[in-house]
Amino acid sequence: MAPKFTPRVFSGIQPSGGLTLGNYLGALKRFVRMQDEGMETIYCIVDLHAITVWQEPAKLRAQTREAAAAFIAAGIDPKRSILFNQSQVPAHAELAWIFNCVARVGWMNRMTQFKDKAGRNAENASLGLYAYPSLMAADILVYHATHVPVGEDQKQHLELTRDIAAKFNHDYGVEFFPLTEPVIEGAATRVMSLRDGTVKMSKSDPSDQSRINLTDDADAIAQKIRKARTDPAPLPETLDGLKDRPEARNLVNIYAALADRAPAEVLAEFAGQGFGVFKPRLAELAVAVLSPISAEMKRLAADPAEIDRILGDGANRAEAIARPILERTHDIVGMIRSR
Ligand code: AQP
Description:
The protein is mainly alpha-helical.
């Protein structure tokens, strides 16, 4: 019989820029919910992942603190959850090396995020970008995490995490690593760019108009939504009517996720209305949800030493869970623990 693993949540966000509405609706909001439901929650600012593409050091530090502030402002309580930056718990990178020796090159070659991010210049991408999913598997499995809340774009990496766990367990004849469950739910698991409804809203999109940042003020949010690309047709009565209208569908999904309602309910309210009516209502809702978060982020930014203290405390608590799991992994693999 498969061993029972205690439910434990792990997830992370890269400090590769300022956090966006996509990160909030696809990830952060559910991080908070899972914490509030009383699950054991471990959240990480994945700075080792961020450097898979070039990061200017001073900016990386600022972005890491800003991401920590975003977590706290969105409702992560650093006493109930563990909040830390990845590089400070070396067990992640150590387990990732072992997983590099478990994962197959053929598996990595299928990862669409690598293909998207490396683009046509894959020869010049960092080796770290290629190995990214193996480090992500280590982030999760070094805590024996059972549940990982993420956006839709991370689904393939979570499948790979399960493949790595299953192959490790099989190769060594153990049932040591859990097969982690992705938690991808809600109306906005893939928030799209405001400029193009077919590409993901992303912190690293060169156009600031493509995204809503958690630090945007009310005017910027309203202006970006007003200028968001749409089509001239009114909103339809059913979801079917949004099928070939990616920009319209995206705005409806964002509204639904912000309001904690189903997209069909949103259409029931706005069917027949044009964007001249819908966009101001969406802007009002987005400002109501995001303004308290950005105000709190500003307050927290004034005390970077306190943020560093919170991250340090989180790293100590994370290390206390990760180290024994890494040591047991060394035993399984056949490495002598000589000290
Ligand atoms: N547009 C999105 N919609 C829903 N969820 C999203 N996430 C990211 N973008 C969206 C989710 O946020 C979490 C953290 O993502 P990440 O920081 O690890 O990196 P990413 O997925 O590569 O996000 P970005 O914003 O596009 O970063 P860059 O530009 O640096 O690559 C994940 O759970 C992700 O699914």
